[in-house]
Write a structure and sequence with these properties.
- By secondary structure, the protein is α+β, with helices and mostly antiparallel strands.
- The strands form two sheets. Strands 1-8-7-5-6 form a five-stranded antiparallel sheet. A three-stranded antiparallel sheet has the order 3-2-4.
- The longest helix is centred in the first third of the chain and has 8 residues.
- InterPro entries: B-box_zinc_finger, CONSTANS-like_Bbox1, Znf_B-box.
- It is found in: Nucleus.
Amino acid sequence: MRIQTQCNLCEAAEAKVLCCADEAALCLACDQKVHAANKLVSEHQRLPLSGSSSSLQMPKCDICQETSGFFFCLEDRALLCRKCDVAIHTVNSLVSGHHRYLLTGVEFVD
């Protein structure tokens, strides 16, 4: 595993949010700059990448809609619970290579 700590935009500050639509980990300053551009981008769903996520209501898994999602798959653009993540990403070598992030900012790299 490797820790994704830098903002994908400025590459200097620590990433604090993951924008699902942009598939980007952003620091707070870049997140504010990018998502203030217009009404459309201001509505992008963004998930916290820091330890502060435990104090927030975690969104449900996009697949089962029953449990909280803790993994975000960039290729599937989906938020997944552990059970659904394992079920989907162990099927074959193509999907097992997907880039998945814990909402704490840890990327699973095979």
